[in-house]
Amino acid sequence: MTLDYKELLEKAQKQIPKSALETTRFEIPKVLGHIQGNRTVISNFHQIASTLRRDTEHLIKYLSKELGAPMELSKTALLVGTKMPAWRINEKIEMYTKDFVICSVCKKPDTQLIKESRVLFIKCSACGAKEPVKVKI
Questions:
Q1: For residue 20, what pLDDT is reported?
Q2: Residue 126, CA atoms < 13 Å, CB-side half-sphere
Q3: What distance lies between CA 57 and its chain's CA centroid?
Q4: Same domain, 97 and 45
Q5: pTM of the model
């Protein structure tokens, strides 16, 4: 039973996930918020977390560590314990996306975080790559 090159190629192409063939542009929503007294209120935090497909607690933990500010999540917004410019928060969210969301092999955001024996891995749904996360929180 020998298959020629074309048959093998067609068989392999059928096994590629559809998400690997898509070329949609992935955009992170910019922070929308305001300063209220000594605090910064990020009103679209839940939208940002759902776009990244990450747990809000994980994202809060990362931002809190990187920005050096206490944070509290309410039903509608994220409250940052200090006055913080939006550009700085956006910069840290982009760093989070690079470290915890985007696949380093195929550069797609179709990933999920998996913890195996105290090691956090990024598993890509598009290309199947799996690698440990390099950043510790």
A1: 61
A2: 17
A3: 13
A4: yes
A5: 0.80
